[in-house]
Amino acid sequence: MYNNSFFKKILLVACVVFLYSCDKDYNSIGDGLIGDNHFDFVKYTSNVVAYNQKVGPIQSNNLAVNALGIYDNPAFGTTTASFATQIVLETINPTIGKNPVIESVVLTIPYFSTLTATDASGDGTYELDSIQGPSVGKIKLSVYESGYFMRDLDPNANFQEAQKYYTNQNSDFNTAKVGSRLNSSLDQSQNDAFFFSAAQYKITVTTDGKDVITRVAPGMRLDLNTSYFKTKIIDASASGKLVTNDVFKEYFRGLYFQVEKSGSSSSNMALLDFRQGKITIKYKEDTSDSDATRIEKSIVLKLTGNSVSLLEQSNTNTSYANATNTANINTTLGDSKLYIKGGEGSMSVLEIFNTTELKTIRDSGWLINEASIVFHVDPTALGTAAKPNRIYLYDLNNNRPIVDYYNDGSAGKAVFGGILNTEKTEDNTYKVGITNHIRNLIKNADSTNVKLGIVVTEDINTISSYKLRSTSGVISQFPKASVMSPLGTIFYGSSAAVADDKRLKLEIYYTKPN
């Protein structure tokens, strides 16, 4: 009995010592242990200096998705998005027989869509995703052969780096376009009055007297000029232009999708994965037999070569222009409104903790339970403009994520956050968790208190950066996922002119010894 009691006491003391030592360490263990006999739970609010930063022409080649169309955003202005891409042969050096005659040339690019219903016959009803602007919007779409050769490697870097192409190169591709537009159908919905249709496409093929129907989800479907492709593709086979894709890309330099306003019609814009697109050339040729039988064949061209998103800005909102003008940016006290926009847009720079404040916190022995920054949308300034689903906060000094991003193993980085919260219709917010970033700053006296950047993101899993064509303010790079997004939002800033309950602040919940 005596020995049993003695060992219990020893075990109890060991547990107390162990738990105390764990609680003294700066890590995530014990985040939920708040307010016992030895610690008090405290909230601390720190001022943030946040100011606007315009993003000029930015690298935009080989993005995962590209905008196409015209988006009139009243809070920012009008963005016109054209596109250029190389094309490649799905099968190199195709064998073409005698007397080939093209029956059809069709360009197809799938849209992002969701099947919402299916009727008794099997026909589906779809809803398009990633469309900005009125659903009835139209654009003038012209597809040309591109005469601009897109290199793989940059000769100015001794061919050691990939060639960069930028958002502001539309005039280069427009000047180099070849001949007349290829989507020359008399059906104006394929060119002068093009629109993104949610209709399912059905293909009927008769086999052995039976009709077989294939249903295809919504997508761009353009009939291209058959005479052009007879000369450019079919006839070029004999001269060796289709023997390899390297030879082919030099011979046929790609496609240029030019976007313009369609008369007085309202416009809209879609995000597309052009790499899923293709051109299918269907033709018939003679068989080698002596009879008059003709066989059907096809050549497929894929849109998987180098590509570039070409963005033009116009009708810029005056408030947006003034807020991002370097003469009006307050890097000392911060700006009253923060404008962040994707594409060739804008971002905000955040500075947390002055030297004195950080030293005081380090000397206090605080244990950080949670730290976050909450961004409040300014509904008056943003108006009816669509809000991005997500924003991304990152280490601006080093153009990389902060430690909280890397430590978040949840699906979609949900703990790290930055997701639009619409629970309060009058106060939409985005909350970003930076607990471990703050812990590291406090624990490690040699840690650099870096500037933070906040941007719109189209894909939270894409964290690489693209180069600006020329350095702008404090930035020379910009998150690639933000280049893909056409959207923007406006936050209340950090200046004293902003009401206290909306002002941008850093919130810290901590415990400290009594």
Please give a structural write-up.
The chain is of the alpha+beta class and 514 residues long. It has two domains: 26-57 and 317-513, no CATH class; 77-312, no CATH class. The chain is built from ten helices and 29 strands. Strands 22-25-20-1-29-21-24-23 form an eight-stranded antiparallel β-sheet. Strands 2, 3, 8, 9, 10, 14, 15 and 18 form an eight-stranded antiparallel β-sheet that branches. The chain has a five-stranded antiparallel β-sheet with strand order 4-17-16-5-13. The radius of gyration is 29 Å and the shape is elongated. The two termini are 39 Å apart.
Mean of residue pLDDT values? 91
Strand content: 35-45%
Tell me the total number of β-strands.
29
Number of helices: 10
- Main sheet record: 8 strands, antiparallel
What helical percentage do the residues reach? 10-25%
Q: What is the overall shape?
A: elongated
Low-confidence stretches: 1-39
Based on CA atoms alone, the radius of gyration comes out at 29 Å
Indicate the multimeric state: single chain
Largest sheet, order of strands side by side?
22-25-20-1-29-21-24-23
The figure for the number of domains is 2
N- to C-terminal separation? 39 Å
Assign the structural class, choosing from mainly alpha, mainly beta, alpha/beta, alpha+beta, or little secondary structure.
alpha+beta
